[in-house]
Amino acid sequence: MIERRDVYQAIADPTRRMIIQKLSGGALNIGQIVEDSGITRQGIAKHLKVLNECGMITLTQKGREQFCEARLDQLDEVVDWVNKSRKLWGQRFEKLDKFLAETKKL
């Protein structure tokens, strides 16, 4: 069975979130991503593979180097979900507040 990857899987891991954050400033080569990460090049490469499969980054070969660029528009799905959840939970908390206020009167 082939595992389907999505944006939620991409952002579930702190290392991948760090990579996305680094790439939000512009395209970087793998060496630049590895810098100051405390993770081996092979480790970063595995995370980049997942991010690429999730559609969160694009990889471009330029000469001997591979450059990565974030596709931040993919995060729109997460933003939409958060906004819907925020609205739902806001309504639920309003109902709870109303219930507690009515209960307190008794």
Fold topology:
Layout: H1 7-11, H2 14-23, E1 28-29, H3 30-34, H4 41-53, E2 57-62, E3 65-70, H5 76-105
Antiparallel strand pairs: 1-3, 2-3
Explain what you see:
The protein has 106 residues and is an alpha+beta fold. It has a single domain, classed as Winged helix-like DNA-binding domain superfamily/Winged helix DNA-binding domain (Arc Repressor Mutant, subunit A, Orthogonal Bundle). It is 59% helix and 13% strand. It has five helices and three strands. A three-stranded antiparallel sheet has the order 1-3-2. Strand 2 and strand 3 form a beta hairpin. The mean pLDDT is 92.
Compact description:
With about 110 residues, the chain is an alpha+beta fold. It has one domain (about 5-105): Winged helix-like DNA-binding domain superfamily/Winged helix DNA-binding domain (Arc Repressor Mutant, subunit A).
Strand order of the largest sheet: 1-3-2
Name of the CATH class: Mainly Alpha
The H-level CATH homologous superfamily, spelled out, is Winged helix-like DNA-binding domain superfamily/Winged helix DNA-binding domain
Assess the beta-strand content as a share of residues: 5-15%
Helix content: 55-70%
For the record, the CATH architecture stands as Orthogonal Bundle
Uncertain runs are none
CATH topology: Arc Repressor Mutant, subunit A
Give the distance, in angstroms, between the N- and C-terminal Cα atoms. Answer: 58 Å
Q: Could you say which overall geometry the principal axes of the C-alpha atoms support?
A: elongated
Instruction: Give the C-alpha Rg.
Output: 20 Å
* Beta strands, count: 3
